[in-house]
Amino acid sequence: MLRKTRIVLATVMFIGITLLFLDFTGTLHSWLGWMAKIQFWPAFYALNIAVVVGIIALTLVFGRIYCSMICPLGILQDIISNVRGRLKKNRFSYSPEKKILRYAMLVLFLASALAGVNIIVSLLAPYSSYGRMAASFLLPVWQWGNNLLAMAAEHLDSYAFYTTDVWMRSGITVAIAAVTLAVITVLAICGGRTYCNTICPVGTILSLFARHSWMKVHFDTDKCTSCGLCARNCKASCIDTKNHKIDYSRCVTCGDCIGKCRQGALSFRHKTSTATKESSRSTATNGGKSADKGQQVDSSRRSFLLASTMATTAAATASAQAKLDGGLAQIEEKEIPKRETPLTPPGSLSAQNMAQHCTSCQLCVSACPNGVLRPSTEAGKLMQPTMSYERGYCRPECTRCSDLCPTGAITKIGKDMKSSIQIGHAVWIRKNCLPATDGIPCGNCARHCPTGAITMVPLDKDDSPEDKNALKIPVVNTAICIGCGACENLCPARPLSAIYVEGHEVHREI
After folding, report:
1. Residue pair 503/343 in contact by the 8 Å Cβ criterion
2. 192: helix, strand or coil
3. Through-space distance between the first and last CA atoms of the chain, rounded to whole angstroms
4. At what angle do helices 139-155 and 2-22 cross, to 10 degrees?
5. What count of Cα atoms within 13 Å lies in the side-chain half-sphere of residue 281?
6. What is the mean pLDDT of the chain?
7. Is pLDDT of 193 > 80?
8. Contact predicate 225/275, CB 8 Å
9. Per-residue b/e over 51-74, b at no fewer than 16 CB within 10 Å?
10. What confidence score (pLDDT) does residue 331 get?
11. DSSP strand E in 251-341: where?
C-alpha cells in the first residue's frame, strides 16, 4: 500500500506541476497554482512558514516522502529509472553515503543564497531545474500540438482552439536545461536517486530530519534470509542487507523494497515496540495467522494515515489575447532596444528584490500570455525574467505572473493595483519617429497609452495644437507613465521603435 499510495500521489503531483508550465491559456493556474507554492525552496524564499514547517513535520513523521511524492525532479528521476529498470532488473547495490560531496554541495548552495549569487541557487534548486526543462522542451511541443488542433478546427468552422506563437525565449536557458536533463538522465539510469542523495541541497536538508523520522522501513531479522533482493531494488542504494541496516538519511520512502521482499521481512512502521515483540511471539506460537492479520490491518491504517496526511498538507498548504499592430502592416521584426535599466514585472518591487528571490523556474515566463517575459542573458541575473515589448506589451488587466510566482520574487497584486505600479517610463527617440523623419502622421503611441501619459504636440512650434493637418510628435508625462510598453510595442517604426521604455531600479505607486 505504501508503494501504491506513493505512485498515485506522485502521478497527480507530477502531472499537475507539468500542466502549470504548459497551460499558456491560464485556465488551470487557479486550480493548480498551489502545487508550485508547496515546493520546499520556493516556499522558503517566499517566507511561507506554514509550508516549510509542514514539509519538515511530514519528514519527521514519514521520512523523505517529499522527495518521492511532491518534488517534480525527484519524480522525474523515478520515471527515468523505471524505464531503465524494465530492461535491467535488480541493478542496484548498497553504497556508503558520499558525505563530503553531499554536504559540500549544501554549503555551496546556502552560501550562494546568503551572498545573493542566485545563479548557483537556480542551477541547484530541484523545482527550478524541472521548471526550466518543462518550459524549454515540453511547452513548445504542447503549443505545436495546440496549433495543429487549431488548424484542423478552423477547417471545420470551429474556434474551440486558437493558434499561439512558438518561439525560443533564450538559447542560453535551453542549453542549461539540456545539460541538466542530460545529467539527471545519466545519474538516474546509472544510480537511481544519485542526484537526490549527492547533489540536491533540498534532499540533503530534509535528510537531516529524515534520520529521526517516526515511521521508517524496518527489518524483521527473524524473517530476513539476507537474499539481498531489497538492496538490489533500492534506487537510493541505502539498504545494507549484510548488517540489516538502512541509511534513513537517503531513504526516500518509496516502498519498492517492501514490495520486492518475498519473506515479508520489511515493513514501514514505528520502531519496534512491546506490542510488536508480543506479536512476534504470537506468530511463532500460532503459525503467524493472528500476527499476519494484525500486520495487514496495521499496514492499512498506516497507508490511510499517510494518504490523509499528504492530502491535508497539499490542500492546506487565459484565454490568450491577440496582439495589436495599430492597423499598420509589420514590415520587419523589431529589435530589442538597449535599456540602461532592465525591466522587471509589476509586483517584483525592485530589481534587487527580483535578483534575491527569483530561482529562475520559468513559470512566469511560460505563463505570460503577451510574450513580454523572457529569461535574462545578463551574467548576474541569468535566466531570471526580464521584460521586452517586441511581441506584446504588459496589459494593465493581466496579473498572471504575480498570481503564480511561488518564491515572492513577484508579489501578488490585484488588477486595480496593476495600473498604478510604475516599473519604468517611456522615452521618445526623435530620429526613429515617422512624423519627424518621414513627415508621416502617426500618433499610435498616444492612441494606445492606457494611462494617457502620452500627448501629441505639433512638430512645428508655429503650428496650432488644434490644427488637425499639422504633423505631431509625442510628449511623455513620466509622472503617470507606468512603463507597460504599449507605445513601444505598437509603434510602427522599424527595426527600432521611436519610443521605448526605460526601467526603474525601484518600482513605485502613482
Report:
1. yes
2. coil
3. 57
4. 70
5. 5
6. 87
7. yes
8. no
9. bbebbbebbbbbbbbbbbbbbbbb
10. 53
11. 266-270
Q: Classify the C-alpha dihedral 485-117-175-83 as positive or negative.
A: negative
Range with lowest mean pLDDT among 308-312, 458-462, 477-481: 308-312
Global pTM reads 0.85
What confidence tens digit (pLDDT) does each residue in 72-113 have? 999 999 999 999 988 888 899 999 999 999 999 999 999 999
Count the helix, strand and coil residues of the chain and give each as a percent rounded to the nearest 5. 50, 10, 40
pLDDT attached to residue 158: 85
CA distance 194 to 230: 17
Least confident of 114-128, 168-182, 302-316, 473-487: 302-316
Give, for 105, the enclosing helix (H) or strand (E). Answer: helix 99-115
* Contact criterion met (CB below 8 Å) for 432 and 493: yes
C-alpha cell at 371: 510574450
- Residues 396 and 450: beta-carbon distance below 8 Å: yes
| DSSP class per residue in 404-464 | H-SSSSS----HHHHTTEEEEEEEE-GGG-HHHHT-----HHHHH-TT--EEEEESSTTS-
C-alpha cell at 253: 520512502
